[in-house]
């Protein structure tokens, strides 16, 4: 876990619970607003989208960029975060 950002480390330290989507590493305030507008207000709803895409990082990143206005960096960081969370808790 030494290579992880403090934000990612905090996200992975416990189950998702009722965390807002902005807790996901890589999700900026602006992207969070776009996600909430589309019904993804909680981290678990974004995780659900990731799981519906069969944890396919490239597909998830493309969806975040094209549908939600994420930057490539935001999309990569958030998919990495969700992938790591799945590795820890699923």
UniProtKB/TrEMBL annotation:
One GO term describing the cellular component: condensed chromosome
Q: Known InterPro entries for this protein?
A: BAF (IPR051387), BAF_prot (IPR004122), BAF_sf (IPR036617)
Claim: Cell cycle is one of the keywords in the record:
no
Query: What is the recorded name of this protein?
Result: Barrier-to-autointegration factor-like protein
Can the keyword Nucleus be found in this entry's annotation?
yes
State where the protein is found. Answer: Nucleus
The organism's place on the tree of life at top rank = Eukaryota
